[in-house]
Design a protein that fits this description.
Layout: E1 2-7, E2 12-18, E3 21-24, H1 31-36, E4 46-47, E5 51-52, E6 61-64, H2 68-78, E7 92-95, E8 100-101, E9 105-109, E10 116-117, E11 120-126, E12 130-131, H3 135-138, E13 142-150, E14 152-153, H4 154-161, E15 177-185, E16 195-200, E17 203-209, H5 217-224, E18 229-230, E19 235-237, E20 258-263, E21 267-276
Parallel strand pairs: 6-19, 8-15, 9-21
Antiparallel strand pairs: 1-2, 1-5, 1-15, 2-3, 3-4, 6-7, 10-14, 11-13, 11-19, 12-18, 13-15, 16-17, 16-20, 20-21
């Protein structure tokens, strides 16, 4: 299934995406409740003038660093070396679910940010409760996949990185995490070899494949679930694909730019960059 959250002037609803058409899923609850309930779709009427929202409001956002190519390119720009531990540990940071916005939205530009950047990521969504799950069974916990544009304040990130606490205000502001346009269920998508690309104002800035991931989603889920219960609706990000950010090119976004992240089998996540200080 290709699932969306939509609004047709009567509040958010779960829908089924059929080509460009949205059909109501016949469920009285949000996407996380839908996933928790086992995705009990009962296709209803076609919805006219449906506006797509973020496909879900996740319980948590965990963002990993799975692509060695991106890490090498980015760390060189940030004046850092790739640590040996990266090859052994699928480390992550946690983002704020309340910052999530959806497709075709305007992403606010905080007043304290000078260098605003996009990040092209594949995201997996947990579909069932697991804890201490072995790696060989970890992928069974994935409900589906979506696209994640993890917006980043690079000038702030460089300052914060020196402290060693991970990203804070470099990642956290209203509208800093963009998800969408839909969730494709895991039974319909082999996430191992997906073409990934990012364009800004129609110009290709970078492309890669999910096959380049050093750490798999199974690695991430097994690692994160050690001693910790994971719940349906948690989102795991792949980290940025190689070439998937302006940092790697020393190119930065500008107000009014249209960023399009495309992942094979999922679609295009389109975001317009707002004007500085509009958040």
């Amino acid at each position: 299934m290709r699932l969306v959250t939509y609004d047709a002037e009567s509040g958010p609803r779960v829908g089924l995406l059929e080509g460009e058409t949205v059909r109501d899923a016949g469920f009285d609850g949000d996407m996380v409740a839908f996933i928790t309930a086992g995705a009990p779709a009962a296709p209803g009427e076609v919805v006219e003038d449906a506006r797509l929202l973020a496909p879900l409001r996740p319980h948590t956002l965990r963002d990993f660093l799975a692509f060695e190519g991106h890490l090498r390119n980015a760390y060189e720009r940030l004046g850092r070396d790739v640590p040996d531990e990266w090859y052994e540990v699928p480390a992550y940071y946690k983002g704020l679910p309340d910052t999530v916005i959806g497709p075709d939205a305007v992403a606010p530009w905080p007043a304290y940010v000078e260098q605003l950047d996009h990040e092209l990521e594949l995201a997996a969504i947990i579909g069932r409760t697991v804890k201490d799950v072995p790696r060989e069974r970890a992928a069974d916990a994935i409900f589906g996949y979506t696209i994640w544009n993890d917006l980043s304040a690079r000038d702030v990130q460089k300052r914060e990185g020196a402290v060693g606490m991970g990203p804070g205000k470099a990642k956290d502001w209203d509208g800093s995490n963009v998800l969408g346009p839909c969730i494709v269920t895991a039974d319909e998508l082999d996430a191992a070899h997906l073409a990934m690309r990012v364009s800004v104002n129609g110009e290709l800035w970078g492309e890669d494949s999910s096959a380049s991931m050093h750490h798999t989603f199974a690695d991430m889920i097994a690692y994160a679930s050690q001693g910790l219960t994971l719940h349906p609706g948690e989102v795991f990000g792949s980290g940025t694909a190689a070439g998937g950010s302006g940092l790697e090119l020393d190119r930065w976004l500008a107000p009014g730019d249209v960023v399009e992240l495309e992942i094979e089998g999922i679609g295009v996540l389109r975001t317009t960059i707002g004007h500085k200080g509009d958040t």
